[in-house]
Design goal:
This protein is of the alpha/beta class. The protein is 29% helix and 15% strand. The strands form 4 sheets. The chain has an 8-stranded parallel beta sheet. A two-stranded antiparallel sheet has the order 1-2. The structure holds ligand FNR. Ligand FNR binds next to β4 and α9.
Length: 371
């Protein structure tokens, strides 16, 4: 017999001033098809395929400056050309009734001199290098170069880069900004005690390690309004050799500090995602952070339909973000609704540069008029 109960994931949710019609969020996904860091017209189709009326999409991590880049052909939002190139992509998502936030990042030491202006060293909280040819899950990045430790007096400029990028995000027409504070990139290089070895006011105590992230949150919130700001955090993830000795204390400190700024949401990656994207068992959970945070809470990492529904039903999250499943199933909400089979994702095309293969060619169900 057909089950007619409405799945929790398919119930509406009011995310601040945004009326979401369901709780299935497109997770930010680096796709490396923005040639020379400029978003391309093929992204119009890619994002609009995944847009639905009242559905929240998070754009792939987008560089805040010319030192922010660590992956070839990842998009940026620090030049006029990049802002203009985003506009038709945002318009296409809006035309389908979608709500679109842009994730902004700085990769810090997850880079190499070949991707930096004038061949300079990547910047970081530290001068400790990543293992030169770290193979992080399926992301096979070329050599990492030893980073240059930021001087204390240089930090306000990086905070300002995030602020200007956030302004540019709004100029491009997006509905808001997600600050990428996860996965071993620059913000996490400050947050985590096994990476941050600073002795100034940005290192040492929890308060000091969180200072950089919170200065960015404050600057971005002041610039565009806290009601349009989210942040992604992954205290438990050890991606890019980014480890903390007490992830729960870090997560709790951050969410409690974030409460002061009244931002829209906190997006957290499950402890079961340890390194790369692989799912492993974990006794820890995000519940303490979910409870301590006053805004909306998005959980991500290894979710399927059933455990996503459980997370919402049990109030462990307001929204659930899907990465690989949404990448491979542009009509994921519809498939969940129908309990339809899912396309399998093809890892080998996650980070290739073809504008079609593994990008816009995943098939839709036949019934939804979108194919
Ligand atoms: C990612 N992930 C990721 N995370 C992030 O915060 N910003 C990003 O740009 C990316 N890029 C990215 C690219 C690709 C191809 C993958 C597979 C993953 C992590 C992603 O958002 C998500 O957290 C993980 O994929 C785990 O969720 P799923 O895939 O199990 O739903």
């Amino acid at each position: 017999m057909e089950d007619t109960t409405i799945q929790p994931l398919l119930t509406p949710y009011k995310l601040g001033k945004f009326n979401l019609s369901h709780r299935i969020v497109l997770a930010p996904l680096t796709r490396q098809r923005s040639y020379n860091n400029v978003p391309q017209p093929h992204a119009i189709l890619y994002y609009s395929q995944r847009a639905s009326k009242g559905g929240l999409l998070l754009a792939e991590a987008t560089g805040v400056s010319d030192t922010a880049q660590g992956y070839p052909d990842a998009p940026g939002i620090w030049t006029k050309e990049q802002v203009e190139a985003w506009k038709p992509i945002v318009d296409a998502v809006h035309a389908k009734g979608g709500i679109f936030f842009c994730q902004i990042w700085h990769v810090g030491r997850v880079s190499n001199t070949g991707l930096q202006p004038n061949g300079q060293a990547p910047i970081s909280s530290t001068d400790k290098a990543l293992t030169p040819q770290l193979r992080a899950s399926e992301v096979d990045i070329a050599d990492f170069s030893p980073p240059r430790r930021l001087r204390t007096d240089e930090i306000p400029q990086i905070v300002n880069d995030f602020r200007i990028a956030a302004r540019n995000v709004m100029e491009a027409g997006f509905d808001g900004v997600e600050i990428h504070g996860a996965h071993g990139y620059l913000i996490e290089q400050f947050l985590k005690d096994q990476v941050n070895d600073r002795t100034d006011q940005y290192g040492g105590s929890l308060e000091n390690r969180c200072r950089f992230a919170l200065e960015i949150v404050e600057a971005v919130a002041k610039e565009i309004g806290a009601d349009k700001v989210g942040i992604r955090l992954s205290p438990y993830t050890e991606f890019m050799e980014s480890v903390d000795s007490d992830p729960q204390a870090l997560g709790l400190y951050m969410v409690e500090a974030l409460n002061k700024y009244g931002i829209l949401y906190c997006h957290m990656v499950e402890p079961r995602i340890k390194i790369g994207m692989e799912v492993c068992e974990s006794p820890q959970s995000l519940v303490p952070m979910r409870k301590a945070f006053n805004g909306s809470f998005i959980a991500a990492g290894g979710y399927g339909r059933d455990d996503g529904n459980d997370a919402v039903a049990e109030n462990r999250a307001d929204l659930v973000a899907y990465g690989r499943l949404f990448l491979a199933n542009p009509d994921l909400p519809r498939r969940f609704e129908l309990g339809a089979p899912l396309n399998k994702y093809d890892r080998s095309s996650f980070y290739t540069s073809d504008p079609v293969i593994g990008y816009t060619d995943y098939p839709f169900l036949e019934d939804n008029g979108n194919a």
